Predict the structure.
Amino acid sequence: MSRYSKVAIILHWLMAVMIIGNLAGGFLHDFVPREGGQRAFVMGLHASFGLTLIALTLVRLGWRLANPPPPLPAYFTPGERLLAKAAHWAFYAAMLALPLSGWLMAERNDRPLQYFFAMDVPKAGIGKPLAETFNEVHELLGWAMLALLVLHIIGIIKHKLMDRDNLLPRMGIGRA
Ligand code: HEM
Ligand code: HEM
């Protein structure tokens, strides 16, 4: 059975949990009360997981380039192959650009940027106006990541219902 490597599977699910958590924290942060530093706490975690994701994405990209994925099932049409590949590479681009834009926007405020409330992280030194622009970029990329995730899940459901093919075992979930 064709399956991604163990390292690819662990990175996929670890990062999926962190990214989905960060999408939730990012889009919902307005609903977290400011009182008692609750919002600062949530966004401190958001930034720390985001910074961790930059490093994990670099490791994952390196692993991916050195370890080709299992071939797609033979019945995939050329159009499906192209769409799957394009979506996967767009995911990699977003996994890098989204947290980087988050780091670049950190200068909007004068609070220190901290890694899990323990260590100061340097900011980019690009000035407030540019940091404001990256805030817009960060939001747009957040929507792009969410759109890719929806497409990703629709793809898996499509193959299950229309092609009677379960792709989840390729990513380590269950047996083929
Ligand atoms: C893959 C990692 C990340 C994801 C998925 C993500 C996602 C998001 C999303 C969806 C928003 C809401 C945007 C809006 O509606 O305005 C947001 C806001 C925010 N993000 Fe991230 N982010 C990530 C990484 C980071 C990093 C690394 C930092 C900082 C070092 C950061 C700092 C922030 C801040 C401060 C906000 C609040 C913006 C505001 O006040 O409007 N994010 N993030
Ligand atoms: C934001 C969260 C997620 C991201 C960023 C993500 C990203 C990716 C990427 C980049 C690949 C291609 C791996 C490669 O070729 O290197 C992939 C494959 C896969 N993902 Fe996700 N994923 C996420 C969430 C999910 C979820 C929630 C599911 C399950 C419902 C899922 C199921 C799969 C499966 C089954 C594959 C293998 C596809 C194949 O057969 O080639 N992913 N994912």
